[in-house]
């Protein structure tokens, strides 16, 4: 599966842009602020129906315009179950519901879309996965599981909606006891989503750790052993019991203080907290390995090689690590790859010697993209 062509209308800093893509490697070269990341964002939107950093849709609309439109044509490889092309159109209008269409028909729910076109994005600030609070790690978990399991995504949506209602009720009660029985009803309704999500998160960790270890060895060549454990308040206490235990605390603090929205992943290196002991280099290798492990899991779960988006990796990673990463992703074991860079020389070195049918190079400047006339003349 790969993206064959792309049309951006009033998206970020693009007024109108049409592109025909390579099924293998697409390199976007241009100065800082030219619009390279925005282009990757457009690809991510088409695959996932939303922004990669959960930025609200209104920010996708070009300044001064009322709406944006993205169109992408996905082609399928011969061995893929489907042989036709899929046309995805996303229409974003300010103050209106976003519309996502597949081959002319609008989806009713985003859950119908997620996972059809698996995607992994590697960005310079991925080290936040290790250094920041638990939310970003849960997002990695949820992103991976949602792309391989639509039931997981619908349970997650249901849980989040109920959680928001529960928190709103706790606020409304303003420290008073709930005499309506509504809190009990929410707790009951949350039980099924909690059980499903907990089980899937638990089952995810084993294979994910295995793939992480493999990727880490390939990227770093180091011998330290890295691991992940899944932390949840629900490991020790069943859901309804936990809610009953926490009822007083929730009432006083006016929010839900326990649940799967508090789960976390703990990363370790040789048994120690990775955040405390890893060197800068080890940290970079680790986060790259996390993303490569995610790639392999998605590939396994969707039976399609995901699209891989590599944003600005040259500037933020050292040469050796970039070389190892690129050797890996440009091997035949990966599907379609998008790379951005500020330096044309580095991209030239990267594609040097590669068959010209395998890649395309695009020049990006101030919201305009030009494909090189003759990509072989590098
Ligand atoms: N909604 C929008 N409307 C118009 N312009 C926007 C919008 N959102 C972002 N931009 C502009 O897009 C530009 C940033 O583009 P982008 O992040 O893709 O750059 P880049 O080429 O990846 O740069 P770098 O190499 O620094 O990462 C900025 O000039 C920003 O002001």
From TrEMBL:
<dbReference type="Pfam" id="PF02463">
    <property type="entry name" value="SMC_N"/>
</dbReference>
<dbReference type="GO" id="GO:0006302">
    <property type="term" value="P:double-strand break repair"/>
</dbReference>
<protein>
    <recommendedName>
        <fullName>DNA replication and repair protein RecF</fullName>
    </recommendedName>
</protein>
<dbReference type="GO" id="GO:0005524">
    <property type="term" value="F:ATP binding"/>
</dbReference>
<keyword id="KW-0235">DNA replication</keyword>
<dbReference type="InterPro" id="IPR027417">
    <property type="entry name" value="P-loop_NTPase"/>
</dbReference>
<keyword id="KW-0742">SOS response</keyword>
<dbReference type="GO" id="GO:0005737">
    <property type="term" value="C:cytoplasm"/>
</dbReference>
<dbReference type="GO" id="GO:0003697">
    <property type="term" value="F:single-stranded DNA binding"/>
</dbReference>
<keyword id="KW-0963">Cytoplasm</keyword>
<comment type="function">
    <text>The RecF protein is involved in DNA metabolism; it is required for DNA replication and normal SOS inducibility. RecF binds preferentially to single-stranded, linear DNA. It also seems to bind ATP.</text>
</comment>
<dbReference type="GO" id="GO:0000731">
    <property type="term" value="P:DNA synthesis involved in DNA repair"/>
</dbReference>
<keyword id="KW-0067">ATP-binding</keyword>
<feature type="binding site">
    <location>
        <begin position="30"/>
        <end position="37"/>
    </location>
    <ligand>
        <name>ATP</name>
    </ligand>
</feature>
<keyword id="KW-0547">Nucleotide-binding</keyword>
<comment type="similarity">
    <text>Belongs to the RecF family.</text>
</comment>
<dbReference type="InterPro" id="IPR042174">
    <property type="entry name" value="RecF_2"/>
</dbReference>
<dbReference type="GO" id="GO:0006260">
    <property type="term" value="P:DNA replication"/>
</dbReference>
<keyword id="KW-0227">DNA damage</keyword>
<feature type="domain" description="RecF/RecN/SMC N-terminal">
    <location>
        <begin position="3"/>
        <end position="343"/>
    </location>
</feature>
<keyword id="KW-0238">DNA-binding</keyword>
<dbReference type="InterPro" id="IPR003395">
    <property type="entry name" value="RecF/RecN/SMC_N"/>
</dbReference>
<dbReference type="InterPro" id="IPR001238">
    <property type="entry name" value="DNA-binding_RecF"/>
</dbReference>
<dbReference type="GO" id="GO:0009432">
    <property type="term" value="P:SOS response"/>
</dbReference>
<dbReference type="InterPro" id="IPR018078">
    <property type="entry name" value="DNA-binding_RecF_CS"/>
</dbReference>
<keyword id="KW-0234">DNA repair</keyword>
